[in-house]
Structure prediction request, 390 residues.
Amino acid sequence: MKTRCLTQRPPGGRNPSACGITALFNMDQKKVSGKKITDMICLMRERENGQGAGFAVYGLFPKYRDQYCIQVLLDHPEGWEQAKAGVESLLHEHTDIIEEQRVYVKKGVFKDYPMVWRFFVDPKKGTEDPDELIKDIMIHINARIDGAFCMSGGKDMAVFKGSGWAEEIAEFYKVRDLKGYMWTFHSRFPTNTPGWWGGAHPFSIVGHAVVHNGEITSYGTNVEYLKELGYQCRLMTDTEPLIYIFDYIVRKTRYPPEIAFQIATMAMAPPYWREIDRMPEPLKRWATYIRIVHRWGMANGPFSIVLTTDNPKPTMIGHTDRKKLRPLIAAVSEDGGTFYLSSELNSIHEVDDTMDFWQPDPGKAVIATTDGVLNRGTDRDLEEFAKLLR
Prediction:
């Protein structure tokens, strides 16, 4: 009998290293295999330490695109079936299970690994807020069902991750055989966290996912803030609060979609007060409002992040801290159809020779949707944002 299972949180530890993040988004939603994103992340091997990697993919389940896909890791000292039974009991209580599947992985890559399972579900009739229900289910699984970890729960998307090198995770989940239109990939584990399967990036809630390079020193403040908003941070990583802050601002505050992403990213990396003092109205008024109302959502420390979401439409967002202490490169293919984000330019040029690349300004969000690249991460984007606020 095993003394500890792979879905359990391990004791603390530290193994410093860089992180590699990379992403691609076919804005026309044309699907490509996972080979492209794998080639991008594996080129940055010096950023890894072999303790973990993972990826998110959108457009994966056309047959079940209208159902939520609850994808879980299962590993219990008394058998993974016991953890699965706990998840099933919770899902039967709140949802209708339309289909369930074992996720078949490649044997021989890892000696020990958890069972990977997915459930396609519809919230029971009469559910007032289906997204909120799925959010609560995901958090409940992670916090209270022993031996189970929920990797993702969105529609037509999934997260795959584990403890190993990026190439090993790609091989284990057969990523080259998968197809999707929006991908992110991350290599290495959170800075202050030992390696465990549930602690790898991406982190996801409902249809959002995040990969992160850096260190969020405001973790404690962010966690306490999120408790008041109905989120439990149980994954022992400073990245987890980022996706919950994004979910709360974009989905729950009900800001108009055309300004919600700017508000979310501005809340996490707000302008300095001296910058706000020089802003024209109404941008100055809104920046002040965001700093005050969402002040506990501010992320301190060095970071670069990539956020993906399908709410209200497929969108990819790149963002860095105000001092640009972590790298982030953006690019668009020469035909204008594919948007890239990466820690390094060479990973983009590994798959695309485009010369349309740039570094977003510190603290400014670069945003791409199915309508194209809306923000390039410059001061001019704030001018356009101000026009939407009038």
